[in-house]
Design goal:
By secondary structure, this protein is an alpha/beta fold. Among the domains are: 134-227, Diaminopimelate Epimerase, Chain A, domain 1 (Roll); 233-537, Metal-dependent hydrolases (TIM Barrel), CATH 3.20.20. The strands form 5 sheets. Strands 8-16-17-18-19-20-21-22 form an 8-stranded parallel β-sheet. Strands 9-10-11-12-15-14-13 form a 7-stranded mixed β-sheet. A 6-stranded mixed β-sheet has the order 3-2-7-23-24-25, with no helix packed on it. β2 (38-40) and β3 form a beta hairpin.
């Protein structure tokens, strides 16, 4: 039989004729056949098929069930979709995977509903982990503490015998108890951290006494880092492997690690050499821990070394990441106009525009890809301006540069994404950080006038930009189905607000899926082997027990991951129960169903 693909767009007569072929020769026998539902190819033309054959690590054919049955041999395994669907393996284009994998082993407060609830969870964790010298973890969200940022006293009341350090959900704050402050030598006389005349890290202080409250903001977090215990390399490898296995249970087959360096990349490579890598990884070299890129010869050598060393299907490099600003909640996002809350500042970009532009021109000249964290509209404009400067300086090439998050974007800058060919990397579930009634830090700080300029998915897509999706795990759950649901509804997991938050910015189901598949593969220069289900491409496949095109958006959340296939191998299989019943997240203080978000805004499940 001729090896062909027969998609649903064929006429009935043509499809019937294709279905009468002979049994495939042995060289074309499938190792795996998927049938009994819909094969959603994620191609731009919307093509689907009834069944699909896989041979080894590649897709062999997709077409009618009768045709694909011809590829079945004695050793072929079959998966019955049961009316569900198979689609390309989900690609999460923005994670912090080592951080997330470590967080799975620590106390987590992401779904705490009040300061008292957070305190009780800390107390329970301390009781059940008496041998841990430090209590580490976090994931706490601002809305849990409506009276303002938490203080050391809240921890001291339940953990005073050992240091405790708890990261905020977004990684921009650390919350310490008195023991940790003492170990780090942080007192009322400890200065804030200043670089080039600019405060880059703040020790939050009691306005009446000047004493540290226990909150370290941004670069000031570095004051405690030298004292925190760190996992050994073997412990990190074990945590990272377990994190990947957990991600596979959500149908994730590839990730972009948005906060890497040579050491992190070596961890992935070690797992690959040990044959324990169950995700494909694309790694960005990031400016972390308050250390901005400077493009010194040594730093450029590291970038080049990463790109040279890691370039296969499993561990890849070649992206340089910049942080242009912080977050709206902490007044560290860069805005064009002042914040709507005191002190009514604008925030500040992390890089002077001229220097940022110069670095981009040099990286572009060397052929690197670039991604820039830009949350405020001021940071988004700086990033767009810098990208455009590099394009003018070096001329056209296939860059596929990205801007991450884009929480607020001035309407004048929206069409620039499409015009310049800039990829918009957005995390659909992030909108859940906002109380749709305006009663949270993000909504208050941005101000009602700018609400319509938040998370402009439809406007950016309408302007012709390629949109990709991710989670920012462990900021929010890595579950792509939660992201897809958020993209098509702009509602929280309780279905609120009715009709969606600025519903004109919703995406279609096809667009939402493309952000995790076809478009995501394009963003990492892998569209020739990933992102769609077509003959010759890698057999990275997610199998769902429900066809997402049927039923209501709520059914997207309920869909079961029946199987996850990477490189042609079934690496995860779900049971008969619902996804929420089978995938439980073991968190300190309780067990939370997969993808849940008790506080409905940036709750941080450990997976």
């Amino acid at each position: 039989m001729k090896r062909s693909t027969f998609f649903a767009g064929l006429s009935a007569a043509g499809l019937a004729a294709c279905s009468r072929g002979r049994l495939a020769p042995d060289r074309d026998r499938a190792t795996l056949v998927i049938r009994g539902g819909s094969i959603y190819t994620a191609r731009a033309d919307g093509a689907t098929a009834e069944a699909m054959a896989v041979a080894g690590d590649r897709i062999l054919a997709a077409g009618s069930r009768a045709t694909i049955d011809g590829y079945i041999g004695p050793a072929t395994r079959t998966i019955d979709l049961g009316g569900g669907m198979a689609l390309p393996g989900f690609i999460d284009t923005h994670t912090h995977f080592v951080w997330g994998s470590i967080a799975r082993t620590q106390v987590q407060l992401g779904d705490a509903t009040s300061p008292q609830d957070a305190q009780q969870r800390l107390a329970q964790y301390a009781r059940t982990h008496p041998r841990e010298r430090w209590v580490l973890g976090g994931g706490w969200v601002y809305s849990t503490f409506p009276a303002g940022l938490p203080t050391r006293a809240l921890i001291d009341a339940v953990i005073s015998d050992r240091p405790a350090v708890l990261d905020s959900f977004d990684g921009h704050l650390k919350w310490l108890n008195s023991k940790a402050l003492a170990i780090a030598g942080i007192t009322r006389t400890t200065p804030d951290m200043v670089k080039n005349g600019k405060v880059v890290g703040t020790i939050v202080r009691d306005p009446a006494t000047g004493e540290p409250t226990g909150i370290l903001r941004d670069v000031a977090q570095n004051l405690i880092l030298p004292f925190e215990p760190t996992p050994t390399r073997e412990q990190l490898l074990s945590m990272l492997h377990d994190g990947m296995v957990a991600a596979n249970a959500y149908g994730v087959t590839s990730v972009v690690n948005a906060s890497g360096d040579l050491n992190e990349m070596d961890l992935y490579d070690t797992l690959r050499l040990r044959r324990k890598l169950s995700l494909r990884t694309t790694n960005a070299y990031s400016d972390l821990n308050g250390k901005p890129h400077t493009l010194t010869p040594a730093e450029l050598d590291d970038f080049e070394e990463a790109r040279r060393r890691y370039r296969d299907d499993w561990v890849r490099a070649g992206i340089v990441k910049f942080f242009m600003d912080g977050v709206v909640e902490g007044h560290t996002a860069s805005l064009l106009d002042p914040y709507s809350t005191p002190p009514r500042d604008r925030g500040e970009a992390d890089y002077p525009s001229g220097r940022y532009d110069q670095m981009l021109v040099e990286l572009d000249r060397r052929g690197f890809a670039v991604m820039t964290h830009a949350i405020g509209d001021g940071a988004v404009r700086e990033a767009l301006n810098g990208y455009e400067a590099a394009m003018r300086a070096n001329g056209p090439r296939d860059r596929r540069w990205r801007i991450e998050h884009i929480e607020v974007c001035d309407p004048a800058d929206v069409p620039r994404f499409g015009r310049l060919g800039i990829i918009a990397s957005m995390q659909p579930y992030h909108w859940c950080c906002h109380d749709y009634r305006g009663d949270d830090a993000w909504a208050r700080n941005v101000g009602r006038r700018r609400w319509p300029e938040g998370f402009q998915w439809r406007n950016i897509a309408r302007g012709g930009a390629t949109m990709i999706h991710g989670s920012d795990w462990p900021v929010v759950t890595i579950d792509p189905l939660v992201g897809i649901y958020s993209a098509i509804t702009r509602q929280d997991l309780d279905g609120k607000p009715a009709g969606g938050w600025f519903p004109d910015q919703r995406l279609t189901l096809a667009e939402a899926i493309a952000g995790y598949t076809r478009n995501a593969a394009y963003a990492i220069f892998s569209e020739d082997r990933l992102g769609t289900l077509e003959p010759g491409k890698k057999a990275d496949i997610t199998v769902l027990g429900h066809d997402l095109r049927r039923g209501s958006p709520r059914d997207v959340l309920a869909a079961q991951i029946k199987a996850t296939i990477v490189d042609g191998k079934v690496i995860y299989e779900g049971g008969a129960a619902s996804r929420a019943e089978t995938l439980q997240l073991q968190m300190a203080g309780g067990t939370v169903p997969a993808g849940s978000c008790a506080c409905r805004r940036f709750a941080r499940p450990v997976v």
